[in-house]
UniProtKB/TrEMBL annotation:
NCBIfam families: fam_STM4013. It holds the Pfam family Sulfatase. It comes from Streptomyces fagopyri. This is Sulfatase-like hydrolase/transferase. Keywords: Hydrolase, Transferase. The lineage of its organism: Bacteria, Bacillati, Actinomycetota, Actinomycetes, Kitasatosporales.
């Protein structure tokens, strides 16, 4: 990561609430053509979320604790705050002296931009300001929210606008929290309705919706130079698994998340 920081643009895309099993099934079935084209080997990594809900998980990720590989470690980290005795910091780790990677990248000359989705990014009230407040520039609109059937398209359009307005030389760290997977998501499945509500099937349809538009985000982020992209979920969610519904609870459907990172090469 030390070679990447300062050279490439950076994208952190959190697919909020995306379940690992649904992501894996859809990739294997060829239903995520645009995402799978970038995943090494066409498959998601299985990881453990650093928190069981949006606020906890994103605070941890911004502090350098991305989801942990779901196998016995220690696993070296890409980013880490300087911390005596850290067993997951190695030579390649980008080590920073600020409390979070966002301000660390700003100190290294990156323009930092947040495009919010779920409520913890809505900038409406003190708590909704905390995570966007880490960034130099932040955006949130009702059309980006969980209630919008066109949330991801709207978020991607904003990202395209942000990139187009930046001077070519300016390095960019763009964070986008996609809200489409989060409940409610029934409106992404044709034939589903408010009365039948959300399920693994509507969750899957929401992921296919994201896949249909993610290519535009990747193109925008690699239009100026090479981009290092991290795409992951912040936590999963339960749809009646062992009687549980939702997240902010300890269940395998919540703590297991899909993860990937890869380079987006600039188009010629
Ligand atoms: Zn979340």
């Amino acid at each position: 990561m030390n070679e990447v920081v300062g050279r490439d643009d950076l994208l952190l895309l959190t697919l909020d609430t995306l379940r690992h099993d649904v992501a894996v099934e859809l990739a294997a079935a060829g239903r995520l053509p645009n995402l799978a084209a970038h995943l090494p080997g066409g498959v998601w990594e299985k990881r453990h979320a650093p928190g069981s809900f949006t606020y906890a998980s994103h605070q941890a990720m911004f502090a350098g604790f991305l989801p942990t590989p779901a196998s016995p470690g220690p696993h070296p980290r890409l980013f880490a705050a300087r911390f005596a005795g850290s067993e997951t910091t190695e030579d390649r780790t980008f080590v920073f002296d600020t409390p979070d990677v966002v301000s660390a990248l700003a100190a290294r000359g990156y323009h930092t931009v947040c495009i919010g989705g779920v409520g913890f990014f809505n900038k409406r009230g003190a708590l909704g300001d905390v995570l966007p407040g880490l960034f130099q520039e932040s955006h949130w609109e009702p059309e980006f929210s969980v209630a919008s059937p066109t949330s991801f398209e709207s978020q991607v359009a904003r990202a395209e606008q942000v990139v187009s307005e930046l001077p070519a030389r300016q390095r960019l760290f763009l964070f986008l929290n996609a809200s489409a997977l989060h409940q409610p998501n029934w409106f992404h499945l044709e034939g589903a309705g408010r009365d039948t509500g959300d399920s693994r099937l509507t969750h899957a349809a929401a992921l296919e919706y994201v896949d249909r538009h993610v290519g535009r985000l990747f193109s925008a982020m690699s239009a100026r130079r090479r981009c290092f992209a991290i795409v992951c979920s912040d936590h999963g969610t339960a749809y009646g698994d062992d009687g549980y519904t939702g997240h902010r609870l300890g269940h395998e459907a919540v703590w297991t998340v899909p993860y990937s990172h890869f380079f987006l090469e600039p188009s010629a």
